[in-house]
Specification:
The chain is an alpha/beta fold. It has a domain of 222 residues: TIM Barrel (Alpha-Beta Barrel). The model has no long low-confidence stretch (mean pLDDT 94).
Length: 324
């Protein structure tokens, strides 16, 4: 039975968690929390490449049952959706918050309270969605929450476009990394997500995450408590370069890593402006991706049933319950 406390609890007890928060604040202004290193003074309200300013902004905090089974379990992942994003994916399903910036500004104390309320609701973990640009606020809030009894595993759910300097300050804080591996081709990453050098930056981040947390570990109830899960969204017309993405992961991290191969692409936000993105990934395209996954020897992770993918994966953050 896995009984080790979440990493941040151990760092909190040693006084290290607060030191990490202070180091992250030093990366905040001039801001260099993510690979853009845009160097704006966010402490004075200037907005970075991510369009985030001084205050942490949260769009939703909820028990989310739509994540991988080892994260959602029976009671849901305690998911906090942060507003803004340092990528600009033209097909982002969360565009209302990532690109339009919807959400409410919170104090550090308010964010800590959100974490504690999710624990009180019975959630299996605290899952931070698009957290990179608010990491100083998050780790400072984590100090308060840990002091008040927070003891759930911490999940870092990101687009995989991460700064190594920042990630290294999260060592021992994050229990479960849940990054994307979006593209194999940098030109296409630039075209569809406005990301420079995505593939090399992403792979370096995946290797650092793997080094920190290792392979996926489950508790006696089958719920993740530590480790790495890599998500890959299969795009129409093989825009993502699925075979190349998976081959690079296998080459660098091995085939035992857990892969979540997703077919839930829907043509939303600005995708309709591009002919190649106007249709869903077809059943045949996704079936080919599943065969590639198997042929490369990946045995751990999840695939989706194409016929079950519909609007339930498309949130509306204007509603009280974003998925209903």
């Amino acid at each position: 039975m896995y009984t080790t406390l979440p990493g941040y609890r151990q760092l909190h007890a040693a006084g290290i968690l607060r030191e990490r928060a202070e180091l992250l604040w030093k990366l905040f202004s001039p801001c260099r929390l993510c690979p853009w290193n845009c160097a704006v003074d966010r402490s004075r309200g200037a907005r970075g490449k991510c369009q985030a300013g001084r205050q942490v902004t949260v769009a939703k905090a909820m028990a989310h049952v739509g994540e991988e089974p080892v994260l959602s379990g029976a009671r849901g992942a305690g998911t906090i959706f942060f507003s803004h994003c340092h990528l600009a994916c033209c097909f982002c399903q969360n565009y209302q918050i990532s690109q339009e910036g919807r959400g409410e500004e919170l104090s550090i104390e308010g964010l800590a309270q959100k974490m504690l309320l999710l624990q009180e609701a019975g959630c299996h973990n605290i899952s931070l969605v698009s957290p990179s640009h608010f990491l100083p606020h998050i780790v400072q809030a984590l100090c308060l929450a840990a002091a008040n009894g927070l003891c759930l595993p911490l999940v870092y759910n990101s687009n995989g476009y991460e700064s190594l300097e920042t990630l290294r300050l999260l060592s021992g804080i994050v229990d479960i990394y849940l990054p994307d591996a979006k593209y194999a081709n940098d030109a296409l990453a630039q075209k569809y997500s406005r990301a420079k050098n995505y593939s090399s930056i992403n792979m370096a981040a995946l290797k650092e995450m793997c080094a920190q947390v290792g392979p996926l570990v489950l508790d006696e109830h089958g719920i993740a408590v530590r480790g790495l899960i890599i998500r890959h969204l299969v795009l129409p017309a093989d825009i993502a370069g699925t075979r190349d993405v998976l081959e690079k992961i296998k080459s660098q991290l091995g085939s035992a890593v857990h892969i979540s191969l997703m077919c839930q692409y829907l043509p939303v936000y600005k995708a309709h402006e591009l002919q190649e993105l106007r249709k869903r990934t077809s059943p045949e395209e996704y079936a080919r991706a599943v065969k590639i996954l198997a042929a490369l020897g990946f045995e751990n992770g999840w695939v989706q049933e194409h016929e079950e993918i519909d609007g339930k994966f498309l949130p509306d953050f204007e509603k009280g319950d974003a998925w209903n």
